[in-house]
Amino acid sequence: MKIVLASNNRGKLAELQAMFAPLGVELIRQGDLFEGEAPEPYGTFVENALSKARFAAEHTGLPAIADDAGLCVDHFGGLPGVDTAYYCTQFGYEKSDDNNVRALLEQMQGVENRRAAVVSTLVGVRNPKDPEPLIAVGRVQGLITTERHGSHGFGFDPVMFIPEVGLTFAEMTPELKHAHSHRGRSSQKMLAMVRERWL
């Protein structure tokens, strides 16, 4: 079975391909099939992921899986949320992982409540009009550190400390991160649903 991954992120594709391999499912990056990006006008991960999955299914005629993920900081009332990738731009920085981390550390200076969650929402559709999309949410609670630790991963990994492991995501090996990450958790749930309902 072929499924299009509604993302042009090669890192995300590699991560998900490895997880879906046991099902005998081939994940294909949407950028290898067509050009264009789905609109993501919504305020929630699930709505944006559904928009991306439907868009990819419509343009390819294949079942599609999309991921929308982000950082939800308690002190900011759950923000940046769906705007995580562009977080630093509101403070005059150019969009990049490095600038996102810099802006977050600046905005969190002197803040006592450092609780935050990283959330990954995967949505799967068999076709653009699928009335029963598969929805899998992975959520990991942690703390924002006061400085960067570790050199692995991407995004906010250097400042996202996971108390149950005692490390930031950037200090973990890829295998350890996968076992404890939001995307690892949502992927395992999605895998089980695809196996049960689509195969």
What would the average pLDDT be, to the nearest integer?
94
Q: What is the count of helical runs?
A: 5
CATH class: Alpha Beta
Low-confidence stretches: none
Order of helical and strand elements:
EHEHEHEEEEHH
Order of strands, widest sheet = 2-1-3-4-5-6-7
Tell me the CATH topology.
Maf protein
* Structural class by SSE content: alpha/beta
Total number of domains: 1
- Assembly level: single chain
Integer-rounded radius of gyration: 17 Å
Cofactor: Mg(2+)
Family: Belongs to the HAM1 NTPase family.
Catalytic activity: ITP + H2O = IMP + diphosphate + H(+); XTP + H2O = XMP + diphosphate + H(+); dITP + H2O = dIMP + diphosphate + H(+)
Pfam family, one: Ham1p_like
What does this structure look like?
Its cofactor is Mg(2+). This is dITP/XTP pyrophosphatase. InterPro entries: dITP/XTP_pyrophosphatase (IPR020922), ITPase-like_fam (IPR029001), RdgB/HAM1 (IPR002637). Its EC number is 3.6.1.66. The protein is an alpha/beta fold and 199 residues long. Helix content is 31%, strand content 23%. The protein has a single domain, classed as Maf protein, CATH 3.90.950. It has helices spanning 10-20, 45-60, 97-107, 174-180, 182-197, and strands at residues 2-5, 26-29, 64-73, 115-125, 134-144, 160-162, 167-168. The chain has a seven-stranded mixed beta sheet.
Using brief descriptors, characterize the structure shown.
7 strands; 199 residues; seven-stranded mixed sheet; single chain; globular; 5 helices
Topology:
Elements: E1 2-5, H1 10-20, E2 26-29, H2 45-60, E3 64-73, H3 97-107, E4 115-125, E5 134-144, E6 160-162, E7 167-168, H4 174-180, H5 182-197
Parallel strand pairs: 1-2, 1-3
Antiparallel strand pairs: 3-4, 4-5, 5-6, 6-7
